[in-house]
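Dear colleagues,

As part of the handover before I leave the project, I'm documenting each prediction I ran so the next person doesn't have to rerun anything. This entry is a single chain, and its sequence is reproduced below.
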Amino acid sequence: MKHIFIVNPVAGKGRPLKVIPDIRRYCGEYNCQYEIIVTEFPGHATEIAAAKSAEDRCRFYSVGGDGTLNEVLNGMARSGSSLAVIPCGSGNDFIKSLVGREVPDDIIPATIRGTERLIDYGSVNDKYFINIASVGFDAKVAWQTELFKKMPLVSGKTAYILGILNTIIIRSNEYLELKLDDREISGETLLVAAGIGKYYGGGIKALPDAVIDDGLFDICHVEAVPRSKILRLFPQYIKGLHGSIKEVHFYRSKKVEITAKKPIPLNRDGEIVLTGKAVFEIFPKSLPFVVPDLS
C-alpha cells in the first residue's frame, strides 16, 4: 500500500514543510512506498486525494491543520482508502479526540506504524466533515475574525478579540429551529455545535462526551443568554465544563437539521460559509482512520 503525504505549506506558519525531512527518514526506516505532495492552492488537497484514490487504495496523511484534514477527507471519502493526520496546524483539534490534548513528539513514526480503525464522519449541506460543525456565536466570531484579519496592522490575536467584542455588540443570539431524531427545539439560541470529535477552535472542548465511532452526532445546544453572561460562560465552554450551566443542553442524534430566519455563518471543520439551513448526515463506521501506535 502506498503512503501519500499531502502537505499544506501555509498551515501552522509553515511547520508542515519543516517535517518533510522527518517523514522521509521514518518512511525509509519502515520501508514504506511513499509520495510527498505539497499543495499549491486552496482546495488542492481535495483534488490530489480524489485523483490518487481513483488510481488505487492508499493511505493518505494530512500534513497540516484541521482545514487540511477536511480537504483531504472530501477528496478520498468513500474510496476505500484510509486517512491519517500529521498535526501541524494552529488548532490540531481532531487528533485530540484520539490521543488527548497533548500531541506526542513521536506522532510521525507513531502514525506511520499506526493501525486502521473504522470511525464515523458526517456531511452538512452535502460537504463532508470529520470533527465539528456549528452555527451561532462561535461561527460568527470566526467570521468576524477573518474580516478583521484583512485590515492593516491587525494581528491574528487582536482580530480574534475584536471578533468576540463585535459579535457581542452586534448580535449574540439567533432564532433557530433544531430538528433531531426524537425532538424539535426552537427559540433564541446562542449556539449549536454538532459533531463527532470533542474539540474545536484550538482546544475548546465543546462536546466532552463525543465518541468517534458510535454512529451518532453529539449536539451541544446553548440557549440565548444575556450579553453580560457570555464572557462568563465561555471559560467553562472551553474547558468542557459547560454542562452545569442551565442554558446548556446535550443531545445525541443521527438526524440534525438547523434552520435560521436568514443566512448566518456555519463553521464546518474551520471553513466558514453563510447558510440559512444546515442539514446533517452521519456515516457510521465508514472511514478507515489511522490510529497512532503510541506503545
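Residues 156-170 form the longest helix (15 residues). The chain has a mean pLDDT of 92.

All the best with the project,
I.
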